[in-house]
């Protein structure tokens, strides 16, 4: 059939317009709230996305840059050269220095996160979940799930609030689990190209099992390890795993409880106090055997789930005990108060004492400090804090890093005790949009590129410098180098991989850079 010239021109114009729209649909819709950098706004039809990343063939490298100036995973490509580029600063890959293997990165599906996600329209919810979990997103593979309520809930509850129910006959999941967290986890799993690693942590035992008769404040389990209260609390974990399994959700790991040190003080929200010695005996006599004889014996058990300043003492107490240590797989670590103890003294010493037990970051968030509280839309300083912490932690043997709430509202909640903090995604349900903070992109530089099974390797410098870096070799043999420049000036450098050659690069001022290349 003949087509007129005018029809052809209209068709061409429509095609060009569509192509322009399609090309722009992956770009950041930047919004500046006056806090130093930008956020990227997403709605039901538009969200910037890094997409699936395929490395160029041997002889080429690809890089991704995010910066205070506004770059968000900006992609560049260049040649790997046979000879030195002559840069004064050289980073040399040392693949013979092999360290720990990566397990994954993620965030927490708290009640508050679920409330915020579900406050959006269905299509915008999908956009948000895809940003974290789909192949087009940033590759989250870990989701921490609070067992019952925490401060990021709207009410106080556990799954067994009937006094004297030692057999847990009245144990039941909450409406928050059934109507929000479980459906969202199922949707996230359906989007994810790999099985999600679910990680469960409890904040408090039921009040009737505790010395203070309350979910909050200073209180521990009644009785002693081996006694009925301790055994009931161990079975509570098993029942939780069983109930979630009914919804086709299985857990990679559980922790011995969120921040056991908090319950030793008059804490303002849900807590359960344990000393290291009490946790050791509860794991050895109650929780370990209960998990081992349950239908979920392969679920990993992580001790501590608290700040690194408690290491290596906590690990020494629990892991030096033959009865407890045989049930333990790793040590969960929070990032709060990191500045009080060096990583080498805490994480490094713990790894060298107990190398068979992995170190895993189980919680972190910006905006928790009274001096710097709540949501700050567009803070690049917080993105740098994340990147610095992840690089430092992984360079001291951590195998993964879990952020706190997947999403919060603009006030940093809801939180029943008003413990408002920040999140990589902030929801504005009135406009049906969400904002991806600089911390979202900071997480992306690790979660998207450091695949499970990647192995950290050595990096050496030919001179002193202020760059912070991390190198891994991925399971397919490709190399990923992550570089953080917290200086206010650009730093030029070259990378030398003895297997392939030299890469000329630069780290812009106040920027995070990921460089990746194939080795065969």
From TrEMBL:
Q: Which GO terms describe its cellular component?
A: lysosomal membrane
The reaction(s) this protein catalyses: beta-D-glucosyl-(1<->1')-N-(15Z-tetracosenoyl)-sphing-4-enine + cholesterol = N-(15Z-tetracosenoyl)-sphing-4-enine + cholesteryl 3-beta-D-glucoside; a beta-D-galactosyl-(1<->1')-N-acylsphing-4-enine + cholesterol = cholesteryl 3-beta-D-galactoside + an N-acylsphing-4-enine; a beta-D-xylosyl-(1<->1')-N-acylsphing-4-enine + cholesterol = cholesteryl 3-beta-D-xyloside + an N-acylsphing-4-enine; 1-(beta-D-galactosyl)-N-dodecanoylsphing-4-enine + cholesterol = cholesteryl 3-beta-D-galactoside + N-dodecanoylsphing-4-enine
Q: Where is the Glycosyl hydrolase family 30 TIM-barrel domain?
A: 102-450
Q: Which UniProt keywords apply?
A: Glycosidase, Hydrolase, Lipid metabolism, Signal, Sphingolipid metabolism
Q: Which residues form the Glycosyl hydrolase family 30 beta sandwich domain?
A: 453-515
Q: Where is the signal peptide?
A: 1-24
Question: Mind listing the GO biological process terms from this record?
Answer: autophagy; cholesterol metabolic process; glucosylceramide catabolic process; lysosome organization; negative regulation of macromolecule metabolic process; protein catabolic process; regulation of macroautophagy; regulation of membrane potential
Please name the GO terms that the record assigns under molecular function: beta-glucosidase activity; galactosylceramidase activity; glucosylceramidase activity; glucosyltransferase activity; signaling receptor binding
How this chain sits in the membrane, per its record, is: Peripheral membrane protein
EC? 3.2.1.45
The answer, when asked if Hydrolase is one of the entry's keywords, is: yes
* Compartments, record wording: Lysosome membrane
EC class: hydrolase
SUPFAM superfamilies for this protein? (Trans)glycosidases, Glycosyl hydrolase domain
Q: Which Pfam families does this one have?
A: Glyco_hydro_30, Glyco_hydro_30C
Q: In which pathway does it act?
A: Sphingolipid metabolism; Lipid metabolism; Steroid metabolism; cholesterol metabolism
Task: Give the protein family.
Answer: Belongs to the glycosyl hydrolase 30 family.
UniProt protein name: Glucosylceramidase
